[in-house]
Structure of DUF1161 domain-containing protein:
Amino acid sequence: MKKLILAIGLLSIAGTTLAAGKPCEELKAEIAAKLDAKGVSGYSLEIVDKGTAAGGKVVGTCEGGSKEIVYKK
C-alpha cells in the first residue's frame, strides 16, 4: 500500500512539472536555433498571450499553454 501511495505521489509531481511547460525564452531560443540551422533568415519570433497571434504562424506554446510563440517572415 505504501508503494502505491508513493507511486501516485510521484506521478502527480511529474504531471505538474510537465503541465508547467517550458519557459518561453528557452523554447524561443530552441526554435530560433533550429531555424538558423536550416538557413532561414529574415524572420521574427514573438511571445504573445494565447489566442492573440495575428499575422503570424504559431510555432510553439509555453508556460503551461498560456503563451504562444509566433513566427513572422
User: Anything to note?
Assistant: The chain is about 45% helix and 25% strand. Residues 43 and 73 are 4 Å apart (CA to CA).
